[in-house]
Amino acid sequence: MTEGPLLSLAGVHTHIGQYHILQGIDLEVPRGGMTVLLGRNGAGKTTTLKTIMGLLAPSQGEVRFRGQPIGGRRPHANARDGIAYVPEDMGIFAGLTVKENMTLAAREGAFSADRLDWLLTLFPALRKFWESPAGVLSGGQKQMLSIARAMIEPRDLLLIDEPTKGLAPAIITAMIDAFRELKRSETTVLLVEQNFLFASSLGDTVAVVDDGRTVHRGTMAELTADAELQERLLGLSLEGHS
């Protein structure tokens, strides 16, 4: 096995048209556990995920996965290499059943029955609505389907963009429980999240982005314990927000 972080970004810049969005992202995602990417709206978090996945090409800097450069590589090649991306807009097919959505997400339309059973245990609502159109699911259930689709095959790295956005507190609590189970597997997660209760409950390591640059890297425990650091980096206290 290659030593070092599973994923690393060094001095990454990304342009979208004439706009210089990322202006120096440095990030390391250790193998196993969850790394959380925090920052204000518009800081560059989603652009960072899209650059890793290959949906955007970096204009400068280096993206490495398992020690190998992948910056600018096409998304399908990254998917074949074990990276999955769950976008903020979920990307599910509302007119297809839950089963059909899951089948489409699996290469060649086949998946392990044991893995499917594990996923349906993580997200029991999907079992209940297995033969129903995905469009009838609630917002939280659609988010669960989106995550399950990305996990239908074993992945080394899961990129997830704001899974709790717009969800009710009870659904967020259920999502925390599901992610705790996910952390017991060997999947490494890089999570963009605005809900700080969710982030601090699950994160192992954290990076904070501001104006397209990495301004802090460390452990989530360190950030959670330091209200002054939270205020300086994020303009708020984690313990006062959920």
The low-confidence parts are: 237-242
Main sheet, how many strands, which sense, barrel?
6 strands, mixed
Number of helices, where a helix is a run of at least 4 consecutive DSSP H or I residues: 10
- Rg of Cα set: 17 Å
Instruction: Please tell me what the overall shape is.
Output: globular
Percent helix range: 25-40%
Keywords: Amino-acid transport, ATP-binding, Nucleotide-binding, Transport
Pfam family, one: ABC_tran
Protein name: ABC transporter ATP-binding protein
Family: Belongs to the ABC transporter superfamily.
Question: How does the SSE layout of this entry go?
Answer:
Blueprint: E1 7-16, E2 19-29, E3 34-38, H1 45-53, E4 60-65, E5 68-69, H2 75-80, E6 83-86, H3 98-105, H4 113-122, H5 124-128, H6 139-151, E7 157-161, H7 169-183, E8 188-192, H8 196-202, E9 205-210, E10 213-219, H9 220-225, H10 227-234
Explained architecture:
The protein is of the alpha/beta class. It has a domain at 91-154. 36% of the residues lie in helices and 25% in strands. The chain is built from ten helices and ten strands. The strands form two sheets. The protein has a six-stranded mixed β-sheet, with helices on both faces. Helix 3 runs parallel beside helix 6 (139-151). It is globular, with a radius of gyration of 17 Å. 40% of the residues are buried. Mean pLDDT is 90; it is low at 237-242. Keywords: Amino-acid transport, ATP-binding, Nucleotide-binding, Transport.
